[in-house]
Design goal:
By secondary structure, the chain is of the alpha+beta class. It has 15 helices and 20 strands. The longest helix is centred in the last third of the chain and has 23 residues. The radius of gyration is 24 Å and the shape is elongated. The chain has a 7-stranded antiparallel beta sheet. A 5-stranded parallel beta sheet has the order 6-2-1-10-20, covered by helices on one side. Bound molecules: flavin-adenine dinucleotide.
Length: 403
């Protein structure tokens, strides 16, 4: 087949996955990124332990993408969590399954994997351009803002892999939204996903407990009941347990103007046992003593009860027991999208066909976090980026060969 020229715009995990498939097919691949280096978000993800995919039952895995499950399934089937582990091993990064089923590189970091990945692409003659900000479509190709001024390039097909709207300082600033919407593509508004929430803490509680973790608790929202831990922040609440509930809480805030996350501070004890043990405490002893002796609770957990309960309710052993088992934390709003792990919103699935080509822009494909799907943390985000990047690349390959 005649060699075709492909512009991949956006050099995160999605764009690099597409480059891998397209360079393997023998196309001339050019990747452009606005930042001075590639895949900055991927590298940052590795700072706290790169959770590259998940080992749970595959059908369960493929159901983590909410309303986008059915649209993502074919791409996920073609690049499964097992394939990801084999692919990483092929780049010299062996992985292990953590106690939660999450999969991490043995070294936990992203940098060795990224280095090997870029080197392999370079060896396949993929050409990289950094500091090239895409500023829109030009005759037969694209216009970029570069340190040497405006530059236009032509190509036979385009892959857009520009990311979502979280952590804009790492490059994905959603500046592309107007460039596509002015060409008739519908973009669902971006919202924070896997984010913390603001809570109206008292000054006293904030100053004393910001940064403190609440360990071994259960949290309940419309999303379900999950065990885990979270952190009291200066603004409110943060951490993996909060992220698991974030989509449901965010949507409740949007639809009803209020949301509460119910915390079980003592999952190991029943309500009956707590009531019985608290009733036995001397009503004259302090709240801290009654709580410590009757429920084994102290520190930040005790402070949270004090913060969120009236004094009268704290003095009622049955109400106190009920609050220990289900303490509602009233939330004000999600933290800003710039702080969120990921974003919801983006190019609506109605705007792309099964091969990830934009319906209004033949020859232009899009994948990764710039599409309108969301998933919890747990390796689902990267898996869907790898998988859709590869699926869109296959779409490009097929489209070019048909052309
Ligand atoms: C702190 C943190 C930790 C995370 N940890 C994990 C984890 O452990 N596991 C997991 O599965 N996911 C994790 N994620 C999410 C994951 O990193 C993202 O879902 C993933 O990087 C998205 O890939 P992408 O290629 O679609 O977009 P991005 O990685 O955002 O890449 C988009 C690229 O496009 C470039 N770009 C944007 N606009 C332009 C333009 N106009 N012109 C040129 N280039 C442009 C950007 O510079 C960027 O390089 C984490 C995210 C964060 C912020």
């Amino acid at each position: 087949m005649e060699q075709k020229t492909i512009a991949i715009i956006g050099g995160g995990p999605t764009g690099l996955s597409a480059a891998e498939v397209l360079s393997e097919s023998g196309h001339a691949v050019f990747i452009y990124d606005a930042m001075p280096t590639f895949a900055r978000k991927f590298l940052l993800a590795g700072k706290s332990g790169l959770n590259i995919t998940h080992s749970e039952d595959y059908d369960q895995f493929a159901s983590r993408f909410g309303g986008a499950n059915s649209r993502l399934r074919a791409a996920l089937d073609a690049f499964t969590p097992t394939d990801i582990r084999a692919w990483a091993a092929g780049l010299g990064t062996e992985t292990f399954i953590g106690s939660s089923g999450r999969v991490f590189p043995n070294v936990m970091k992203a940098s060795p994997l990224l280095r090997a990945w870029l080197a392999r692409l370079e060896a396949r003659d993929v050409t990289f351009f950094t500091r090239h900000r895409w500023i829109g479509f030009a005759e037969g190709g694209h216009a970029f803002e570069t340190p040497d001024g405006r530059k236009t390039v032509s190509c036979d097909a385009t892959m857009l892999a520009l990311g979502g709207a979280s952590y804009p300082r790492l490059g994905s600033d959603a500046g592309w939204v107007s460039l596509l919407s002015e060409r008739g593509t519908t973009i669902a508004p971006f919202q924070p996903a896997n984010c913390g929430f603001d809570v109206a803490w008292s000054d006293l509680f904030r100053d004393r407990f910001a940064g403190e973790p609440l360990k071994s608790v259960m949290a309940t929202s419309r999303a379900g009941t999950f065990p885990g831990e979270f952190v009291i922040s200066r603004h409110g609440i943060e951490g993996s347990l909060i992220y698991a509930h974030a989509a449901a809480l965010r949507d409740d805030l949007l639809q009803h103007g209020e949301a509460r996350l119910a915390i079980d501070l003592s999952p190991g004890r029943t309500l009956e046992r707590l009531s019985r043990d608290l009733v036995r405490q001397d009503a004259k002893s302090s709240f801290s003593n009654r709580l410590r002796k009757g429920a084994g609770i102290d520190g930040v957990k005790a402070a949270l009860l004090r913060e969120l309960m009236s004094q009268a309710d704290r003095n009622d052993p049955n109400k106190l027991a009920a609050a220990i088992k289900s303490l509602p934390i009233p939330l004000l709003r999600p933290r800003p999208i710039a702080e969120a792990i990921s974003s919801a919103g983006g190019i609506a699935f109605s705007q792309i066909n099964e091969t990830y080509m934009l319906k209004h822009l033949p020859g232009t494909f899009a994948a990764g976090e710039m599409l309108d799907w969301e998933a919890p943390t747990g390796g689902y985000l990267l898996t869907a980026c790898f998988a859709t990047g590869r699926a869109a690349a296959k779409g490009i390959d097929d489209w070019l060969s048909r052309k």
